[in-house]
Design goal:
Number of helices: 4
Structural class: mainly alpha
Distance between the termini: 41 Å
Shape: extended
Order of helices and strands: HHHH
Strand content: under 5%
Helix content: 55-70%
């Protein structure tokens, strides 16, 4: 199966299934790009949902990861 076919099929999954697939693919990489726990991501998403007027930039997130 070609990549574009996989993308089409993956787009048919529910949001939760796509998130799980993305997580599995990222965890399958030899070297993780960033070490962020799923719990930390969920916490940040809750914070953003609670107060969308205070967005956090990628650089701010990166600074908290690379201490």
């Amino acid at each position: 199966m070609k990549l574009d076919e996989i993308v089409v099929e993956a787009s048919k999954l529910s949001e939760q299934e796509r998130a799980s697939l993305a997580s599995q693919l990222l965890h399958g990489l030899e070297t993780p790009v960033y070490e962020v726990s799923d719990d930390d991501v969920r916490k940040r998403m809750r914070e953003a949902d609670a107060d969308p007027s205070e967005p956090i930039t990628f650089d701010e997130i990166h600074q908290t990861i690379v201490r």
